[in-house]
Each structure stands twice: as C-alpha cells, then as structure tokens.
Here is the input.
Amino acid sequence: MRTNPKLKTYYPYFDYVRFIAASIVMFYHDDLINWDPSGSIAVDVFFALSGWLIGGILLRSKSEDLPRFYFNRAIRIWIPYFAALSLIILVSLLKDPINIKWFEFILYKLTFVYNIFGPPQLLEYKDMMPLDGTGNHFWSVNAEEQFYLFAPILLVLIGKFGHHPITWALLSVIAWHQHLYAPIFLGVFAAICAYKYGNFYEKPFVKFILFAILVTSTFGIIYSNYQYFSPAFSISLILLLAIKGEKSDFGEFLGGISYPLYLNHWIGVFAANSISGIFGFRGTLYSIVLAILIGYLLSAIMYLLIDKQCLKHRSKFYSHARGVWITVSAYLMIVIGLSFGIFVW
Here is the structure.
C-alpha cells in the first residue's frame, strides 16, 4: 500500500534526536566525552535522519517543485552556515597568520566541498587552517549539501530508476563498504520502501527486528570497528523513533537550536578559555561546563534571531526566479569548488 504523497507527517522525537546528537558533538569537542567515535556516530544519526526526511520530501516532488525545494534548503542551511563561517573568518583574521593555504580552506568551505579536500589535509596543515581547524566539523554540512544536489537528480528527474529500492540498496551497500556517508543512503532507501510499500517500520515484527539491529550494532560499535556498525545503528534508531505525533514548543525549540549549536559550539570553548584564564580555572571541569553553557545560550540566541526568523518568513521571499537562481548557484558553487580542489591537488 502506497502512502499518500500529499500527507505531511511530523515526528516529534526527531527534535530530541537532533538536540542530543548536536550536544554529543559539542561534548566531544569540549573534552567532556573522550570516546573518539562518539562525534562520528552522532553525525551518522544526523545523516540517517536527513536521508529519511529529505528522501520522503523528494519522493512527493515533481520537477517543477525543485526550485522551491532548493530555495527552502538554502534558507534553512545557507544562512546559518555562512553566518557561522563568517564568524570563524573574522576571528581567524584577528588571530591567525594569513597565507595561500588559509584561503584554500576558506574557499572549500564557501563552495561546500571542504569534506572532500579539507579533512585529508588536517594533520599536515592544521596550523594553516582557520583557528587551527576549528571549523573542521563543517565537513558534514558540506556532505549534506552535496546530498541535496545529488538526490533530486535520482529521485525526481530520472524517474523509475531513481525511485527503485534496488537502486538505493546498491548505493547503500557501496557507500557502506567505502565508509562514504552510508546512513544518508540508508535513510533514502527506507523512505522509498515506506513510500512504495507502506509504513513497514510501524509493524510490531519489524520493530522487533529494528530493535535487535540497534542492540547488536551498539555492541558492535563498542567492541569492534564502529564504522561498520554505525550506519545500522543510525537507521534503526531513526526508524524506531519515526513515530507520528504533534509538534510541541519545547521539542521544536530543542530541535531548532541543534543546527546553530552544531555550527557554533566552538565559540563557547573560546569564550570559556578566555574567562577561565582570567580567573585561574582554565583546563578544569568548571571551564568545560562553562563552555557548554555558553554554547547552549549562544545557539538559542542564534536560533531565535536567525534560524527561526528565516524559516518564519521564507515563504514571503520565495519566487520561481529566486528558486531557479538558488538552484543554479548551488550547483555552480560545487563545480567551482571541485574544479579548484582538483587543480590544486
């Protein structure tokens, strides 16, 4: 049974998933969590969530809907992202020696290809990156942006081949084998199965299977190579929490601050180090707690002033021409970034 493509569904638990995942990344970067895979697993959960939600949107879209889709994604992703990147550039200009390599890394982030060309150079050129690689976590936003450009081609423009579950099952297997953002592909694969065959993940037997996968993959993450088990953990968690419900103000707030928290939690560390250095408790647990509190406070302010306002008013600013312009700009940025990166390398 196919689900109604016009039906808009809200999953309230996803708000809390976003908040917890962003918090884990912050805790890891603030040295409150010392387990290396924690941040990567949290990002994989974000990826699975994006694949599931964005895949579901695109499956209900037609080619004429794509300018609106790209416009909405740009408002949601670009404005907070470029605001966060501008802060890193500003602070870096005040603190760092500026050289050609510095500009190279900035260009990668401006064109959403840092995930391809940046992290492989982290060990060798960290001291030449803005703020010693502080914005390295932007790689995941760049990967998401590339997914937003790649997925519509298969799911909307190509048609039956792009809608077929086998297509995304194969892509998921390849991505899993190559450790290349497999949770995103698994999320889309799950969305296609739900679109074509109904909400399979709501059936008790399937829930039991998903729970078994979640538990097994958790043990695999702890006792083996987390990269092999994290995709299964991420998609099973998302499907288990894909429970329809009503939006709550508190949940929406926590989910809303997760993106600015993910982008800007580094500011809390810088601020806490400055304050704790003055009062003599730098490097202590008190400094870490202060960094986390500042991170939460700053992300809440940014959400209320930037993210929420952008989402609230984006319909007023949409036009087909702006949507087309955003679409062309998005692909052009990727082309410029890839061309520059390949030329430099």
About this structure: The radius of gyration is 20 Å. The longest helix spans residues 285-317. The chain is about 75% helix and 0% strand.
